[in-house]
Amino acid sequence: MKKIIILLNIVFLYYSCEKNEIVNPEKYNCNFTHLDSSVIHPKRDQYQSLLDELIQKRAVGVLMTVYSPVDGEWSGASGKADLANNIPMQSCMISRMGSTLKMLTATVILMLYDEGKINLDQKISYYIQEDYINKIRNAEYATVRQLLQHSSGIYNYIQNPRFQTASMNDLRKVWQPHELLSYAYNKNPYFVSGTDVRYSNTNYILLGLLIEKIENRPLYEVFDQKIFLPLGMSNSLFAAKDPIPDNLVRGYIDIYNNYKIIESTFYSGWDYYTADGGLLSNSHDLFLFFKSLMNGDVISTELLNEMLNWKFPNEQNPDFFSIAYGLGIFKIQTSIGEVYFHSGDAIGYYANMMYVPSLDTYIVYATNSNYGKLDEWISTPKAIDNILHKVCR
After folding, report:
1. How far apart are alpha carbons 178 and 94 in whole angstroms?
2. Which of 108, 172, 192, 206 gets the highest tally of CB atoms within 10 A of its CB?
3. Could you tell me if 77 and 89 are in contact, meaning their C-beta atoms sit under 8 angstroms apart?
4. C-alpha span between 43 and 38 (Å, rounded)
5. Which residues contact residue 191 at a Cβ distance below 8 angstroms, ignoring those fewer than 6 apart?
6. What is the phi-psi region of residue 160: left when phi exceeds 0, alpha when psi lies from -120 to 50, beta otherwise?
7. pLDDT average per 10 residues of sequence, the chain (393 residues)
8. Rounded Cα–Cα distance for residues 55 and 49 (Å)
9. Which of 213, 222, 218, 219 is nearest to 129 (CA)?
């Protein structure tokens, strides 16, 4: 889901004067560990044409994986991974995936529930008795399930203008979870817990801290053991393990809303250590996860049904699709029908995971450029509909 940030032009004017790093192209070398048959896929030209269209619309680079039970998997790429060094994007490269991590975080929580380590309907304050719980309104009363479903009413720290200013004034700052939580201290909740739904990154920072407390080890070790290694997600890692790996594609932003992009690779330090957005991956790996989840291979069918128990907001956002909230997953009503999804972004990166249940079709894509005029064909309802129609036709 989109992060709300006030972009201060004077700060970016300073940072845009920085020189782009000159790198050895070999650092971007990558390969899939599975047998990739995309070059003989029956719809390869159709899908590649869509990616090339997004590049023509001024996106810098894009990765995409499409799967249907009839045609199988296709993974492709278009555009550039690094403009300064003229590196073409490859489908095996890794990018920032932002809040798509929340679906994985929710899955880990459900795994812990299945192991008898937590109760979804127990208050988060039962497990975490730190001082910050008492400083975040509703946190004392909200349950684990309510955090997962964004029905806690807890204030979204990213919406605090003080955080927006602080983050923009030091774009390279690496934030720790407790620093971020402080921007939710003593802020009025949106509603009484359980009475509505509203997206809040604060929920998932708390869930990440819960995971670390229950497992008594860092988040990246938990995700490695429970998600990445078992599913063969060899190109995925939690950002805390290596926040800016050498092979991460460069990120770019259209800050002035005029297609004059600047590099922003090092400007996303608030989610390196939190469970609300610190995922580095590619479209193939996220497809592997999503398909395994929907097939009941990660959690039981019973728990999957819990995850897909939808709650509708009291008021819909008129600027987006009609939406329903599950546990770490959303359902939107598009022009082709219902779609399960979760999107995510960072400064210079956007990703989206979609599943069309009526067609049993998966679409996962990621770009290394966003904001300004770029968003029209990347992340808006218009952009999502365009992609859905051109893949599912």
Report:
1. 28
2. 206
3. yes
4. 9
5. 153, 198
6. beta
7. 44 47 84 92 98 97 98 98 96 98 98 98 97 97 98 98 94 95 98 98 98 97 98 96 95 92 93 96 98 98 98 97 98 97 96 98 98 95 97 92
8. 10
9. 213
Closest CA to 341 of 349, 350, 332, 127: 332
